[in-house]
Design goal:
Among the domains are: 85 residues, no CATH class; 192 residues. Helices cover 73% and strands 7% of the residues. The chain has eleven helices and five strands; from the N terminus they run ααααβββββααααααα. A five-stranded mixed beta barrel has the order 1-2-3-4-5. Helix 3 runs antiparallel to helix 4 and helix 7 runs parallel beside helix 11. The longest helix has 105 residues.
Length: 459
């Protein structure tokens, strides 16, 4: 039973064993090669390690030498530090001694430094603001060099400072003519012949100049003074030699001239008054023209009447008195009442012609202040509207309305006052002529009555 089971298994087992023996033989050959390789590599690694160990030992000796050198360098540095510290203390002590010696030797000269700096600074500010610097701008550089020095000034520095101060004093008394750059109101620079009157004014032909201190430039004024001042400065550009020449100077070095030019002209005032102001001026001009027309007419009539009064026998019909005499002559009636009526009719016919335009002048004199009041009201309305829109923080914004309110009132009064005087004068002339005609009429009636009584007595 057992043999029957074992026999079938023997052959496979034998086959497996044979296979395993063949495999083991292959593996055994590989292991021999591996062992041989391990041995070979071990010998190579041993040589490498020996070389590394040898190099390490060599480097270790070098490192020891470097450590010793470093320690020696540190010791040398410490010695040098001690030596330098001692030298520093000696130098500080020497500096202190030298400073003390300088102070002792300087004595009162120790204040010269600060005094010269202060004078240079003050003089630089003064020259910067002077119109003379437009002609001599290089003086600023010299003062800057003296001011920037951090040591006692030398004799040359003091001489230069003295010369600059003396030069400024001398030029303040001179009238110089030179060719300089002038900037016009549009910013264009050009070479112009400039006359400088001391430290006060600089002018070119037909124009006064202003001095701009920050860059020492001469600028033309945006608005020039009156023509009489311009004519005075133009005398200095005339080729004619004259011993006496007038000139306008500004002792405040430009301040008064600037303020003078800021004053508004009549044209500016009229513009500020607005439309109401133009209306008042128009009314005033019309009233004055009418008054002038009537006065010329009345003076002519009065002259003819006076001439007629001096020659009553020579009757001329070109004047009211002559026409009155003509009426008396042509109506030599016995009825006195009828003659009186004729004379009164002649006088009344001349009164409207003499009184023509008088009421119109009076009307304009009354309307002018009313328009001024109207301008005052409208100006205040504009002012209040500006306050509502912008508030009261900016007074300049309210200036237009206030200017209109005040100026229209002034214009209304200025128009009304002369018109009232003209009306009164015209009225007085009309009244004087009317009185002359009435007196002459009464005289003619008296003469007619006397003549009539004489004739009746003769009869």
């Amino acid at each position: 039973m057992n043999n029957t089971i074992i026999k079938p298994l023997i052959k496979p087992l034998i086959f497996v064993l044979i296979s395993m023996s063949s495999a083991l033989s292959v593996y055994a050959s590989d292991l021999d090669a591996l062992l041989e390789k391990v041995i070979t590599d071990g010998y190579e690694e041993s040589d490498t390690h020996k070389q590394r160990e040898k190099a390490f030992l060599s480097n270790q000796k070098n490192q020891a030498n470097l450590v010793e050198q470093t320690i020696q360098a540190i010791d040398d540095a410490k010695l040098l530090q001690i030596k330098l510290n001692n030298q520093l203390k000696l130098n500080e002590s020497l500096i202190t001694e030298l400073e003390t010696e300088i102070e002792e030797k300087a004595g009162d000269l120790s204040n010269v430094f600060s005094i010269v700096h202060q004078i240079s600074e003050d003089q630089k500010v003064s020259l910067q603001q002077s119109v003379i610097s437009s002609e001599f701008s290089n003086r600023m550089g010299t003062l800057s060099k003296i001011e920037d020095k951090n040591e006692l000034p030398k004799i040359e520095d003091l001489k230069q400072l003295w010369l600059i101060i003396q030069h400024q004093m001398t030029q303040s008394a001179h009238v110089n003519t030179s060719s300089l750059l002038v900037t016009d109101i549009e910013g264009v620079e050009s070479k112009e012949t400039v006359i400088r009157f001391g430290g006060f004014n600089s002018v070119i032909k037909n124009e006064f100049l202003s001095y701009y201190a920050p860059n020492t430039k001469l600028l033309t004024l945006s608005k020039q003074p009156e023509s009489k001042f311009i004519n005075e400065i133009n005398q200095w550009f005339s080729p004619e030699k004259s011993l006496v020449k007038n000139v306008v100077i500004d002792p405040t070095l430009g301040g008064v001239l600037q303020q003078y030019l800021l004053q508004p002209t009549i044209k500016d005032r009229i513009k500020q008054a607005g439309l109401v102001g133009y209306a008042i001026i128009f009314i005033g001009i019309i009233g004055l023209l009418v008054a002038a027309w009537r006065l010329v007419y009345l003076f002519g009539v009065n002259k003819k009447v006076q001439a007629q009064m001096n020659h009553l026998d020579d009757i001329r019909l070109d004047n009211p008195l002559g026409q009155l005499l003509s009426v008396a002559k042509d109506n030599n009636l016995e009825n006195t009442a009828l003659l009186e009526s004729k004379l009164e009719e002649s006088i009344l016919s001349h009164v409207p012609q003499l009184d023509k335009g008088t009421n119109f002048i009076k009307l304009l004199a009354a309307v002018a202040p009313l328009l001024g009041l109207l301008g005052t009201v409208t100006g205040m309305i504009d002012t209040f509207q500006t306050i509502v829109d912008l508030g009261t923080s900016d007074p300049q914004s309210m200036a237009d309305g206030i200017s209109q309110a005040l100026l229209t009132t002034v214009f209304g009064l200025l128009a009304a006052v002369p018109l009232l005087f003209c009306h009164s004068f015209v009225t007085s002339k009309v009244r004087a002529l009317t009185v002359i005609l009435s007196q002459q009429s009464a005289g003619l009636l008296a003469m007619h009555i006397k003549k009539t009584d004489t004739e009746n007595n003769h009869d």
